[in-house]
């Protein structure tokens, strides 16, 4: 099973990208959502890194995630801050709500976890159908260059109790036709030099071309597509940008 975010993977994610850490995305989404009136949805909400500061700003936002472990971190962070935690365990392909949303956001390239093009297109149509008329979808994609570089060195994090967590990544497949990469991510939990647990995740992602994804959005029924680079709204992406953002609306 790909992209499951198990116990160690979720722990490492929460250590590496805790609530309060921004890559420019928290500020960007706050700015893009400031005029939204009504509930906001964040699919693939993860540990709440984005959701929590948006809740603290006064926005009405809820979310879902496929990983029970990631949702536990999100619920814990909301509990610490006495924030309403409207998060559920659902998937991109099957999520459902009995109301429309004023905005849907997908930061951090999470949409690229969908590696089948037909499924991805169906999910975009699902987003479209869950938006109120005139409401917008805002989302990030990683540029192609971030997929094609070599795997990085072994990474390590120290937990609060002094335990050590490590991550070793091995790229095992790059499919230039399907536009996907498959990596083996080996997570290890160490204490006093002894290995307590190891976990292997098969991590698969899909890259999209800028024009390609704009057309997919339009085919899903969206209009007024704006593509921006490095969280500078309206500034066309440059070849060295680290993130590409898309904003589009459901017709009024």
What are the SSEs and their pairings?
Elements: H1 7-16, H2 25-33, E1 40-43, H3 51-56, E2 61-65, H4 68-80, E3 87-89, E4 101-106, H5 117-130, E5 131-141, H6 145-148, E6 155-158, E7 164-175, E8 180-191, E9 194-206, H7 210-219, E10 223-229, E11 244-249
Parallel strand pairs: 1-2, 1-4, 2-3, 4-5
Antiparallel strand pairs: 5-11, 6-7, 7-8, 8-9, 10-11
Q: What this model shows, in words?
A:
- This protein is α/β, with parallel strands linked by helices.
- It folds into two domains: 7-144 and 208-249, Rossmann fold, CATH 3.40.50.150; 145-206, N-terminal domain of TfIIb (Single Sheet), CATH 2.20.25.
- Helices cover 26% and strands 33% of the residues.
- It has helices at residues 7-16, 25-33, 51-56, 68-80, 117-130, 145-148, 210-219, and strands spanning 40-43, 61-65, 87-89, 101-106, 131-141, 155-158, 164-175, 180-191, 194-206, 223-229, 244-249.
- The strands form two sheets. It has a seven-stranded mixed sheet, with helices on both faces. Strands 6-7-8-9 form a four-stranded antiparallel sheet, with helices on one face.
- Helix 3 (51-56) links the parallel strand 1 and strand 2 (61-65).
- The longest helix has 14 residues, at 117-130.
- The protein is globular.
- The mean pLDDT is 95.
């Amino acid at each position: 099973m790909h992209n499951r975010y198990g116990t160690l993977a979720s722990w490492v994610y929460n250590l590496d990208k805790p609530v309060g850490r921004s890559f420019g995305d928290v500020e960007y989404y706050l700015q893009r959502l400031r005029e939204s009136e009504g509930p906001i949805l964040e699919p693939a909400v993860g540990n709440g890194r984005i959701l929590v500061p948006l809740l603290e700003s006064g926005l009405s936002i809820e979310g879902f995630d496929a990983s029970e472990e990631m949702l536990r971190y999100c619920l814990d962070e909301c509990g610490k801050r006495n924030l309403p935690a409207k998060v559920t365990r659902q998937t991109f392909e099957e999520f459902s709500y009995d109301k429309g949303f004023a905005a849907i956001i997908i930061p951090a390239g999470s949409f690229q976890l969908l590696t089948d093009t037909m499924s991805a297109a169906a999910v975009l149509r699902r987003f479209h159908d869950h938006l109120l008329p005139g409401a917008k979808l805002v989302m990030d994609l990683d540029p192609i260059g971030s997929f094609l570089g070599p795997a990085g060195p072994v990474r390590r994090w120290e937990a609060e109790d002094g335990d050590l967590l490590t991550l070793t990544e091995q790229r095992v497949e790059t499919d230039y036709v399907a536009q996907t990469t498959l990596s083996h991510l080996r997570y290890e939990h160490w204490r006093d030099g002894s290995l307590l647990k190891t976990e292997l995740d098969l991590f698969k992602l899909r890259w999209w071309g800028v024009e390609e994804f704009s057309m997919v959005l339009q085919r899903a029924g969206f209009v007024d597509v704006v593509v921006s680079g490095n969280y500078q709204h309206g500034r066309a992406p440059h070849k060295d940008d680290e993130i590409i953002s898309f904003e589009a609306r459901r017709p009024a």
